[in-house]
Amino acid sequence: MAPRTYAIVTYGCQMNEHDSEIMAGLLETRGMTRVEDENGADVVLFNTCTVRDGAESRAYGRVESLVSAKRANPDMVIAVCGCSAQDRGQALLERYEHVDLVIGTRDYVKVDQLVEEVWRSQQRLVAIDDIDKPLSLPTVPVRRSSLKAYVNIMFGCNNRCTFCIVPKTRGVEFSRPLEEIVEEVKRLAAQGYREVCLLGQNVNSYVDAQRHDFADLLHALDEIDGIWRIRYTTSNPKSAKHRHLAAIAQCPKVMENLHLPVQSGNNRVLRQMKRAYNVERYRFLVAMYRDLCPGGALTTDMIVGFPSESEAEFRDTLRLTEEMRFDQQFMFMYSPRKGTPAADTMRNDVPLAMKKDRLQRLIQLQEEISTEVNRAEIGRLHEVLVEGPARRGDDMMGRTRTDKTVVFPGDASLAGQLVQVRITNAWSHTLRGEVLTPSMSKVAAG
Ligand code: SF4
Question: Does ligand 1 come within 6 angstroms of the Cβ of 167?
Fold first, then answer.
Protein backbone atom coordinates (compact mmCIF):
# COMPACT_ATOMS: atom_id res chain seq x y z
CA MET A 1 0.00 0.00 0.00
CA ALA A 2 1.33 3.45 -0.95
CA PRO A 3 2.37 5.53 2.07
CA ARG A 4 -0.21 8.00 3.26
CA THR A 5 0.38 11.59 2.24
CA TYR A 6 -0.03 14.87 4.06
CA ALA A 7 -0.18 18.55 3.14
CA ILE A 8 0.27 21.54 5.47
CA VAL A 9 -0.97 25.05 4.72
CA THR A 10 0.55 27.61 7.10
CA TYR A 11 -0.59 31.15 7.86
CA GLY A 12 0.84 33.82 10.16
CA CYS A 13 4.08 34.18 12.09
CA GLN A 14 7.39 32.32 12.34
CA MET A 15 6.07 30.49 15.38
CA ASN A 16 3.34 28.96 13.21
CA GLU A 17 5.89 28.12 10.53
CA HIS A 18 7.96 26.24 13.08
CA ASP A 19 4.91 24.49 14.57
CA SER A 20 4.19 23.26 11.03
CA GLU A 21 7.78 21.96 10.75
CA ILE A 22 7.24 20.02 14.00
CA MET A 23 3.86 18.63 12.85
CA ALA A 24 5.42 17.56 9.53
CA GLY A 25 8.10 15.68 11.45
CA LEU A 26 5.53 13.89 13.60
CA LEU A 27 3.49 12.75 10.57
CA GLU A 28 6.67 11.59 8.82
CA THR A 29 7.59 9.47 11.85
CA ARG A 30 4.35 7.62 11.01
CA GLY A 31 5.65 6.98 7.49
CA MET A 32 3.64 9.70 5.77
CA THR A 33 5.10 11.72 2.89
CA ARG A 34 4.51 15.35 2.06
CA VAL A 35 2.61 16.61 -0.98
CA GLU A 36 2.07 20.25 -1.94
CA ASP A 37 -1.45 19.92 -3.35
CA GLU A 38 -3.89 19.44 -0.48
CA ASN A 39 -6.66 18.17 -2.79
CA GLY A 40 -4.93 14.81 -3.22
CA ALA A 41 -3.59 14.37 0.30
CA ASP A 42 -4.78 11.86 2.93
CA VAL A 43 -4.21 14.39 5.71
CA VAL A 44 -4.50 18.18 5.36
CA LEU A 45 -3.45 20.51 8.17
CA PHE A 46 -4.43 24.17 8.09
CA ASN A 47 -2.20 25.99 10.57
CA THR A 48 -4.15 29.18 11.12
CA CYS A 49 -3.53 32.73 12.36
CA THR A 50 -6.12 34.96 14.00
CA VAL A 51 -4.15 38.19 14.48
CA ARG A 52 -6.05 39.87 11.65
CA ASP A 53 -9.27 39.23 9.74
CA GLY A 54 -7.49 38.77 6.41
CA ALA A 55 -5.33 35.84 7.47
CA GLU A 56 -8.27 34.06 9.07
CA SER A 57 -10.73 34.45 6.20
CA ARG A 58 -8.10 33.36 3.66
CA ALA A 59 -7.56 30.14 5.63
CA TYR A 60 -11.28 29.31 5.87
CA GLY A 61 -11.73 30.04 2.20
CA ARG A 62 -9.18 27.33 1.53
CA VAL A 63 -10.79 24.95 4.06
CA GLU A 64 -14.12 25.38 2.25
CA SER A 65 -12.45 24.60 -1.11
CA LEU A 66 -11.83 21.02 0.09
CA VAL A 67 -15.50 19.95 0.30
CA SER A 68 -15.40 18.09 -3.03
CA ALA A 69 -11.97 16.51 -2.33
CA LYS A 70 -13.37 15.16 0.94
CA ARG A 71 -16.44 13.80 -0.88
CA ALA A 72 -14.06 12.06 -3.34
CA ASN A 73 -11.93 10.66 -0.50
CA PRO A 74 -14.06 10.28 2.68
CA ASP A 75 -11.00 8.83 4.47
CA MET A 76 -9.18 12.17 4.10
CA VAL A 77 -8.54 13.84 7.46
CA ILE A 78 -8.95 17.64 7.43
CA ALA A 79 -7.55 19.37 10.51
CA VAL A 80 -7.58 23.01 11.56
CA CYS A 81 -4.81 23.98 14.00
CA GLY A 82 -3.08 27.11 15.27
CA CYS A 83 -4.45 30.24 16.89
CA SER A 84 -7.83 30.36 15.16
CA ALA A 85 -8.44 26.69 16.05
CA GLN A 86 -7.57 27.44 19.67
CA ASP A 87 -9.92 30.42 19.65
CA ARG A 88 -12.91 28.77 17.93
CA GLY A 89 -12.63 25.13 19.05
CA GLN A 90 -15.84 23.04 18.80
CA ALA A 91 -17.59 25.79 16.80
CA LEU A 92 -15.38 24.87 13.83
CA LEU A 93 -16.81 21.33 13.66
CA GLU A 94 -20.32 22.80 13.72
CA ARG A 95 -19.40 25.32 11.00
CA TYR A 96 -17.51 22.94 8.68
CA GLU A 97 -18.98 19.43 8.39
CA HIS A 98 -15.99 18.24 6.33
CA VAL A 99 -13.47 19.18 9.06
CA ASP A 100 -12.51 16.18 11.24
CA LEU A 101 -10.06 17.60 13.74
CA VAL A 102 -9.45 20.85 15.62
CA ILE A 103 -6.02 21.11 17.29
CA GLY A 104 -4.98 23.79 19.78
CA THR A 105 -1.67 25.70 20.02
CA ARG A 106 -0.22 23.35 22.65
CA ASP A 107 -1.91 20.14 21.46
CA TYR A 108 -0.21 20.11 18.02
CA VAL A 109 2.61 18.00 19.46
CA LYS A 110 0.09 15.12 19.46
CA VAL A 111 -1.01 15.64 15.82
CA ASP A 112 0.09 12.16 14.71
CA GLN A 113 -1.79 10.43 17.54
CA LEU A 114 -4.89 12.59 16.93
CA VAL A 115 -4.95 11.80 13.20
CA GLU A 116 -4.58 8.07 13.94
CA GLU A 117 -7.42 8.39 16.49
CA VAL A 118 -9.75 9.95 13.89
CA TRP A 119 -9.05 7.06 11.50
CA ARG A 120 -9.40 4.43 14.28
CA SER A 121 -12.57 5.82 15.94
CA GLN A 122 -14.14 7.38 12.81
CA GLN A 123 -15.00 10.26 15.22
CA ARG A 124 -14.42 14.01 14.73
CA LEU A 125 -12.22 15.41 17.52
CA VAL A 126 -11.38 18.69 19.26
CA ALA A 127 -8.04 18.93 21.18
CA ILE A 128 -7.51 22.40 22.63
CA ASP A 129 -7.18 21.75 26.38
CA ASP A 130 -3.43 21.92 26.95
CA ILE A 131 -3.34 25.74 26.43
CA ASP A 132 -1.74 26.56 29.81
CA LYS A 133 0.38 23.44 30.17
CA PRO A 134 4.16 23.54 29.70
CA LEU A 135 5.09 22.11 26.33
CA SER A 136 7.84 19.56 25.71
CA LEU A 137 8.81 19.64 22.08
CA PRO A 138 9.32 16.57 19.92
CA THR A 139 12.75 16.65 18.31
CA VAL A 140 11.73 15.66 14.80
CA PRO A 141 10.90 18.89 12.93
CA VAL A 142 11.10 18.69 9.15
CA ARG A 143 12.68 22.08 8.55
CA ARG A 144 12.11 24.03 5.33
CA SER A 145 15.77 25.19 5.23
CA SER A 146 19.04 23.27 5.71
CA LEU A 147 20.94 26.45 6.62
CA LYS A 148 18.66 28.40 9.00
CA ALA A 149 16.52 26.96 11.78
CA TYR A 150 13.78 28.26 14.06
CA VAL A 151 14.14 27.44 17.76
CA ASN A 152 11.31 28.03 20.22
CA ILE A 153 12.66 29.47 23.48
CA MET A 154 9.30 30.17 25.11
CA PHE A 155 5.54 29.97 24.57
CA GLY A 156 2.61 32.21 25.36
CA CYS A 157 2.46 35.76 26.69
CA ASN A 158 1.51 37.23 30.09
CA ASN A 159 0.95 40.73 28.74
CA ARG A 160 -2.53 42.02 28.04
CA CYS A 161 -2.19 44.41 25.11
CA THR A 162 -5.80 45.33 24.46
CA PHE A 163 -5.71 44.72 20.68
CA CYS A 164 -4.04 41.32 20.91
CA ILE A 165 -5.60 37.85 20.81
CA VAL A 166 -2.30 35.99 21.44
CA PRO A 167 -2.63 35.61 25.25
CA LYS A 168 -6.01 33.92 24.63
CA THR A 169 -4.74 31.65 21.85
CA ARG A 170 -1.19 30.94 23.03
CA GLY A 171 -1.71 30.84 26.82
CA VAL A 172 0.50 31.85 29.72
CA GLU A 173 4.26 32.31 29.35
CA PHE A 174 6.43 29.25 29.67
CA SER A 175 10.21 29.37 29.08
CA ARG A 176 12.08 26.23 27.95
CA PRO A 177 15.07 25.26 30.14
CA LEU A 178 18.29 26.90 28.90
CA GLU A 179 20.07 23.53 28.78
CA GLU A 180 17.33 22.05 26.56
CA ILE A 181 17.67 24.95 24.09
CA VAL A 182 21.49 24.68 24.12
CA GLU A 183 21.23 20.93 23.37
CA GLU A 184 18.80 21.60 20.49
CA VAL A 185 21.13 24.23 18.98
CA LYS A 186 24.16 21.92 19.37
CA ARG A 187 22.24 19.24 17.47
CA LEU A 188 21.45 21.78 14.75
CA ALA A 189 25.13 22.80 14.50
CA ALA A 190 26.06 19.13 14.14
CA GLN A 191 23.53 18.86 11.29
CA GLY A 192 25.20 21.75 9.48
CA TYR A 193 22.80 24.56 10.38
CA ARG A 194 24.66 27.87 10.56
CA GLU A 195 21.91 30.29 11.68
CA VAL A 196 19.25 29.97 14.36
CA CYS A 197 16.29 32.29 14.98
CA LEU A 198 15.04 32.22 18.57
CA LEU A 199 11.24 32.47 18.75
CA GLY A 200 9.05 33.88 21.51
CA GLN A 201 6.12 36.28 21.70
CA ASN A 202 8.25 38.37 24.05
CA VAL A 203 11.84 37.09 24.23
CA ASN A 204 12.85 39.71 26.81
CA SER A 205 10.69 38.02 29.41
CA TYR A 206 12.46 34.69 28.88
CA VAL A 207 13.38 33.24 32.30
CA ASP A 208 13.67 29.50 33.00
CA ALA A 209 13.21 27.60 36.25
CA GLN A 210 16.90 28.20 37.13
CA ARG A 211 16.37 31.96 36.66
CA HIS A 212 18.48 32.08 33.46
CA ASP A 213 17.30 35.10 31.48
CA PHE A 214 17.51 36.16 27.82
CA ALA A 215 21.05 37.56 28.18
CA ASP A 216 22.23 34.29 29.79
CA LEU A 217 20.69 32.37 26.91
CA LEU A 218 22.39 34.52 24.24
CA HIS A 219 25.78 34.12 25.93
CA ALA A 220 25.32 30.34 26.23
CA LEU A 221 24.35 29.95 22.56
CA ASP A 222 27.22 32.21 21.48
CA GLU A 223 29.62 29.51 22.76
CA ILE A 224 28.34 26.82 20.41
CA ASP A 225 30.83 25.84 17.67
CA GLY A 226 29.46 25.63 14.17
CA ILE A 227 26.68 28.19 14.71
CA TRP A 228 27.61 31.44 12.94
CA ARG A 229 24.50 33.57 13.47
CA ILE A 230 21.86 33.97 16.18
CA ARG A 231 18.68 35.98 15.50
CA TYR A 232 15.71 36.44 17.89
CA THR A 233 12.10 37.70 17.66
CA THR A 234 10.04 39.34 19.11
CA SER A 235 11.42 41.84 21.64
CA ASN A 236 9.20 44.02 23.85
CA PRO A 237 9.99 47.57 25.12
CA LYS A 238 8.16 46.76 28.36
CA SER A 239 10.63 44.04 29.40
CA ALA A 240 13.79 44.83 27.41
CA LYS A 241 16.73 45.46 29.74
CA HIS A 242 20.26 46.90 29.37
CA ARG A 243 21.79 43.44 29.90
CA HIS A 244 19.72 42.04 27.00
CA LEU A 245 20.87 44.78 24.63
CA ALA A 246 24.45 44.56 25.93
CA ALA A 247 24.46 40.83 25.12
CA ILE A 248 23.74 41.70 21.48
CA ALA A 249 26.92 43.81 21.48
CA GLN A 250 29.03 41.38 23.53
CA CYS A 251 28.18 38.16 21.64
CA PRO A 252 29.85 38.08 18.18
CA LYS A 253 27.32 35.58 16.83
CA VAL A 254 24.26 37.56 17.94
CA MET A 255 23.05 39.67 15.02
CA GLU A 256 22.62 43.43 15.25
CA ASN A 257 19.00 43.50 14.09
CA LEU A 258 16.49 44.33 16.80
CA HIS A 259 12.77 44.03 16.12
CA LEU A 260 11.20 46.23 18.83
CA PRO A 261 7.46 46.80 18.22
CA VAL A 262 6.32 50.25 19.43
CA GLN A 263 2.74 50.10 18.00
CA SER A 264 2.05 53.87 18.38
CA GLY A 265 3.93 57.15 18.74
CA ASN A 266 1.38 58.62 21.17
CA ASN A 267 1.33 58.01 24.92
CA ARG A 268 -2.47 58.18 25.36
CA VAL A 269 -2.91 55.57 22.61
CA LEU A 270 -0.16 53.41 24.17
CA ARG A 271 -2.08 53.57 27.47
CA GLN A 272 -5.27 52.54 25.66
CA MET A 273 -3.31 49.63 24.22
CA LYS A 274 -1.98 48.71 27.69
CA ARG A 275 1.54 48.51 26.28
CA ALA A 276 3.00 49.39 29.71
CA TYR A 277 5.67 51.77 28.40
CA ASN A 278 5.64 55.26 26.96
CA VAL A 279 7.35 56.94 24.00
CA GLU A 280 10.06 58.35 26.29
CA ARG A 281 10.98 54.81 27.45
CA TYR A 282 11.04 53.64 23.85
CA ARG A 283 13.38 56.47 22.84
CA PHE A 284 15.63 55.63 25.81
CA LEU A 285 15.85 51.94 24.79
CA VAL A 286 16.60 52.78 21.17
CA ALA A 287 19.33 55.24 22.21
CA MET A 288 20.83 52.57 24.44
CA TYR A 289 20.73 49.95 21.65
CA ARG A 290 22.29 52.32 19.11
CA ASP A 291 24.98 53.23 21.62
CA LEU A 292 25.80 49.58 22.27
CA CYS A 293 25.42 48.44 18.65
CA PRO A 294 26.42 51.30 16.30
CA GLY A 295 25.03 50.60 12.82
CA GLY A 296 22.63 47.98 14.19
CA ALA A 297 19.28 47.67 12.41
CA LEU A 298 16.01 48.55 14.09
CA THR A 299 12.58 47.45 12.91
CA THR A 300 9.17 47.79 14.50
CA ASP A 301 5.41 47.12 14.31
CA MET A 302 2.88 49.95 14.15
CA ILE A 303 -0.91 50.02 14.35
CA VAL A 304 -2.87 52.94 12.87
CA GLY A 305 -6.52 53.75 13.49
CA PHE A 306 -6.69 52.29 17.01
CA PRO A 307 -10.03 53.16 18.67
CA SER A 308 -10.26 56.92 19.44
CA GLU A 309 -6.89 57.69 17.78
CA SER A 310 -7.09 61.34 16.65
CA GLU A 311 -5.35 62.91 13.65
CA ALA A 312 -2.96 64.69 16.04
CA GLU A 313 -2.14 61.42 17.81
CA PHE A 314 -1.51 59.73 14.46
CA ARG A 315 0.87 62.56 13.57
CA ASP A 316 2.82 61.60 16.73
CA THR A 317 3.33 58.21 15.09
CA LEU A 318 4.64 59.90 11.95
CA ARG A 319 6.95 62.09 14.04
CA LEU A 320 8.33 59.09 15.96
CA THR A 321 8.92 57.31 12.65
CA GLU A 322 10.92 60.30 11.35
CA GLU A 323 12.88 60.51 14.60
CA MET A 324 13.67 56.79 14.99
CA ARG A 325 14.44 56.26 11.26
CA PHE A 326 13.49 52.57 11.45
CA ASP A 327 15.11 50.35 8.85
CA GLN A 328 11.71 48.76 8.26
CA GLN A 329 8.25 48.79 9.78
CA PHE A 330 5.41 46.26 9.71
CA MET A 331 2.39 48.54 9.49
CA PHE A 332 -1.24 47.55 10.08
CA MET A 333 -4.69 49.10 10.33
CA TYR A 334 -6.37 48.29 13.63
CA SER A 335 -8.46 45.12 13.17
CA PRO A 336 -10.83 44.33 16.07
CA ARG A 337 -10.37 40.70 17.26
CA LYS A 338 -13.37 39.27 19.09
CA GLY A 339 -12.32 38.27 22.60
CA THR A 340 -9.74 41.06 22.96
CA PRO A 341 -10.32 43.88 25.50
CA ALA A 342 -10.24 46.51 22.72
CA ALA A 343 -12.85 44.73 20.58
CA ASP A 344 -15.06 43.94 23.56
CA THR A 345 -14.91 47.35 25.31
CA MET A 346 -13.88 50.03 22.77
CA ARG A 347 -15.80 51.40 19.79
CA ASN A 348 -13.99 50.78 16.50
CA ASP A 349 -14.65 54.44 15.74
CA VAL A 350 -11.92 55.36 13.25
CA PRO A 351 -13.60 55.07 9.83
CA LEU A 352 -12.04 52.55 7.41
CA ALA A 353 -11.26 55.27 4.86
CA MET A 354 -9.39 57.23 7.52
CA LYS A 355 -7.49 54.09 8.60
CA LYS A 356 -6.49 53.46 4.98
CA ASP A 357 -5.39 57.08 4.55
CA ARG A 358 -3.24 56.94 7.71
CA LEU A 359 -1.73 53.60 6.67
CA GLN A 360 -0.84 54.99 3.24
CA ARG A 361 0.81 58.08 4.73
CA LEU A 362 2.83 55.95 7.16
CA ILE A 363 3.88 53.49 4.44
CA GLN A 364 4.96 56.35 2.18
CA LEU A 365 7.04 57.94 4.94
CA GLN A 366 8.63 54.63 5.92
CA GLU A 367 9.43 53.77 2.29
CA GLU A 368 11.29 57.08 1.96
CA ILE A 369 13.23 56.44 5.17
CA SER A 370 14.04 52.80 4.31
CA THR A 371 15.34 53.91 0.91
CA GLU A 372 17.53 56.63 2.46
CA VAL A 373 18.82 54.27 5.17
CA ASN A 374 19.62 51.58 2.60
CA ARG A 375 21.18 54.02 0.12
CA ALA A 376 23.59 55.05 2.91
CA GLU A 377 24.93 51.48 2.69
CA ILE A 378 26.23 51.99 -0.87
CA GLY A 379 30.00 51.57 -0.86
CA ARG A 380 30.01 49.81 2.51
CA LEU A 381 31.17 46.20 3.09
CA HIS A 382 28.85 43.66 4.63
CA GLU A 383 29.29 40.08 5.77
CA VAL A 384 26.55 38.10 4.00
CA LEU A 385 25.36 34.54 4.65
CA VAL A 386 24.51 33.22 1.17
CA GLU A 387 21.13 31.49 1.21
CA GLY A 388 20.76 30.53 -2.46
CA PRO A 389 19.51 31.80 -5.84
CA ALA A 390 17.71 35.14 -5.86
CA ARG A 391 14.03 34.98 -6.73
CA ARG A 392 14.61 36.68 -10.06
CA GLY A 393 17.46 36.49 -12.58
CA ASP A 394 20.73 34.54 -12.20
CA ASP A 395 21.91 36.29 -9.06
CA MET A 396 22.43 34.77 -5.65
CA MET A 397 20.93 36.24 -2.45
CA GLY A 398 21.76 36.35 1.23
CA ARG A 399 21.36 38.52 4.31
CA THR A 400 23.62 40.91 6.15
CA ARG A 401 24.12 40.72 9.93
CA THR A 402 21.49 43.50 10.07
CA ASP A 403 19.01 41.18 8.25
CA LYS A 404 18.99 43.13 4.98
CA THR A 405 18.46 41.16 1.79
CA VAL A 406 21.36 41.47 -0.66
CA VAL A 407 21.41 40.19 -4.25
CA PHE A 408 24.71 39.81 -6.11
CA PRO A 409 26.23 37.97 -9.08
CA GLY A 410 27.56 34.56 -8.07
CA ASP A 411 27.10 30.83 -8.53
CA ALA A 412 25.43 28.10 -6.48
CA SER A 413 28.77 27.08 -4.91
CA LEU A 414 28.49 30.15 -2.68
CA ALA A 415 25.33 28.83 -0.95
CA GLY A 416 25.86 28.35 2.78
CA GLN A 417 29.04 30.45 2.81
CA LEU A 418 29.83 33.73 4.51
CA VAL A 419 31.08 36.21 1.95
CA GLN A 420 32.24 39.82 2.01
CA VAL A 421 30.00 41.99 -0.20
CA ARG A 422 30.44 45.62 -1.24
CA ILE A 423 27.05 47.33 -1.64
CA THR A 424 26.67 48.92 -5.07
CA ASN A 425 22.99 49.88 -5.10
CA ALA A 426 19.95 50.00 -2.81
CA TRP A 427 16.18 50.22 -2.72
CA SER A 428 13.71 50.35 0.16
CA HIS A 429 13.72 46.57 0.76
CA THR A 430 16.77 45.22 -1.06
CA LEU A 431 20.49 45.90 -1.48
CA ARG A 432 22.63 44.99 -4.48
CA GLY A 433 26.31 44.19 -4.23
CA GLU A 434 29.41 42.46 -5.53
CA VAL A 435 31.25 39.65 -3.77
CA LEU A 436 34.77 40.73 -2.86
CA THR A 437 36.06 37.50 -1.32
CA PRO A 438 34.42 34.50 0.29
CA SER A 439 35.57 35.16 3.85
CA MET A 440 35.29 33.34 7.04
CA SER A 441 33.77 35.73 9.57
CA LYS A 442 35.83 36.13 12.73
CA VAL A 443 33.54 33.64 14.46
CA ALA A 444 32.84 31.22 11.64
CA ALA A 445 36.05 29.35 12.49
CA GLY A 446 34.09 28.44 15.65
S1 SF4 B 1 3.26 41.43 24.07
FE2 SF4 B 1 1.21 42.21 23.63
S3 SF4 B 1 1.14 42.23 21.38
FE4 SF4 B 1 2.81 40.88 21.95
S5 SF4 B 1 1.92 38.84 22.02
FE6 SF4 B 1 1.85 39.68 24.10
S7 SF4 B 1 -0.19 40.59 24.28
FE8 SF4 B 1 0.24 40.30 22.10
Answer: yes
CA of 409 to the centre of ligand 1 (A): 41
> What domains, with CATH codes, occur in the chain?
5-127 (3.40.50.12160), 145-255 (3.30.750.210), 259-376 (3.30.750.200), 381-438 (2.40.50.140)
Residue 186 and residue 138 in contact, taking contact as beta carbons nearer than 8 Å: no
Contacts of 301 (CB under 8 A, 6+ apart): 259, 261, 262, 263, 329, 330, 331, 332
Ligand 1, atom nearest to 202 Cα: 1
d(C-alpha 159, C-alpha 235), whole Å: 13
The residue nearest atom 4 of ligand 1, judged by CA position, is: 201
Q: What is the pLDDT of residues 159-204, one digit of tens each?
A: 999 999 999 999 999 999 999 999 999 999 999 999 999 999 999 9
161 Cβ inside 6 Å of ligand 1 = yes
Predicted TM-score of the model (pTM): 0.94
Amino acid at 433: G
